[in-house]
Amino acid sequence: VHGDWICMIGRIVRRGLFSFGQIPSRTFVSIVPQRKAETGDIRDFYKNILNTSKLTKHGLMKVDPSEFRKMLKMTNNVEDLEVLLEAYINFLGHKMNLPPTMADLIFEKAIELEVPERMHPILKVHNYIGYFPHPRLIGLSMKHFTEKEMHREVMALLNLVLDKVLIKTDEEFYKHLLGYLKRFKINKFFGKILEIAMVQDFIPSMPTMSLMLEALFYAKRDRRLIQSPEEKQLRLMFTVRNSYFV
């Protein structure tokens, strides 16, 4: 019954062994410059934009993207972040020419303020607004949630990643998630986690391979997982795959 899991874990391990040392194709760059915070109240600044911006004949605000960058620099606490998120959604609705990576700036600010969960509503609609978060930010979010033992947020982010296949993950995501699930003996998601790792062509490091193997053998003891829809789906997907361990 569990041979299909072994096929899957073998494929992941084999990929890691033969691709060990490869560099991910997308490079993360520090996205918030180390500058002195802007002075002034972000709420007043945003209100002024709303009150003074000219409108097109279709009723859309004409706002220069640099105004939003100023708001980002003025964001110093969680309350400011809420205003920033409101402005981001509002400006997108008014078809402001904001680059997709602008949301990464907001995401990093949320992590800096230790509230990455505030980005979950954005992640839920990321494909509709053309935003594809940097994998490192997803990993840092999972690291924060697991270290703080924020179970609801851990599960929320995991379900987002499982549901939104275009949200890419990184080593930190798997390392902290698998460690957390092992610590609290939560193994019902293991099949889905392996599935998303395969879909995303994730190349694990040796320590993360070990965590996956440990999770595999731990999950084998849970008889309830054998009858789960996840297990049946994985059996269909990976029956024809050869195992590295065979």
List the helices and strands and how they pair.
Layout: H1 3-18, H2 42-52, E1 54-55, E2 61-62, H3 65-73, H4 78-93, H5 102-112, H6 120-124, H7 135-147, H8 151-163, H9 171-183, H10 190-199, H11 206-219, H12 229-238
Antiparallel strand pairs: 1-2
Helix pairs in contact: 1-10, 1-11, 4-5, 5-7, 7-8, 7-9, 9-11
Overview of this protein structure:
The protein is mainly α. Helix content is 57%, strand content 2%. It has helices at residues 3-18, 42-52, 65-73, 78-93, 102-112, 120-124, 135-147, 151-163, 171-183, 190-199, 206-219, 229-238, and strands at 54-55, 61-62. A two-stranded antiparallel sheet has the order 1-2. Helix 1 packs parallel to helix 10. It is elongated. The protein starts with a helix and ends in an 8-residue tail after the last helix. The model is unreliable at 19-24, 29-37, 223-227 and 229-246 (pLDDT under 50).
Helix content: 55-70%
Q: Please give the alpha-carbon distance between the first and last residues.
A: 15 Å
Low-confidence stretches: 19-24, 29-37, 223-227, 229-246
Strand order across the largest sheet: 1-2
Q: In percent terms, what proportion of residues is strand?
A: under 5%
| Radius of gyration computed on alpha carbons | 21 Å
Element pattern in H and E:
HHEEHHHHHHHHHH
Provide the residue-averaged pLDDT.
Answer: 79
Which overall shape is indicated by the principal axes computed on the Cα atoms? elongated
What's the β-strand tally? 2
Strand pairing plus helix content: what structural class?
mainly alpha
Task: Tell me the number of helical segments per DSSP (H or I, 4 or more residues long).
Answer: 12
